Amino acid sequence: MLSVNIAAFRAQLSKLLGRVRRGEEVVVLDRRVPVARLVPYQERLPLKVAVRKPVDDPSSLAKLAFPPLKGRPVDTLSALLEDRGSR
Question: What is the pTM of this model?
Fold first, then answer.
C-alpha cells in the first residue's frame, strides 16, 4: 500500500490512478494523518435474498394473548406525536 501526502497526490494524480487501476491501494495523508484511501473499483453485485416459508402458520399470530395494560389507557397517537416532537 502506497501512502502520499496531499501535495504529491495532486501533482501525481494520473500516475496514482494508474497504480490503483493495476490493483494497488493509495492512502492520502494530511500531515501524516490518513484522510482517504483509493482502492480499485469493483462492481457490486446485487445481494441474494433467500425467502423461506414461515415456521408457523401466520394465522397463529391471531391466537396470541397479551395481558391488559395496567394503569391508565394509553393513547398511542398522542405518545407517538409527543416522542416525535421531542426530536
Answer: 0.51
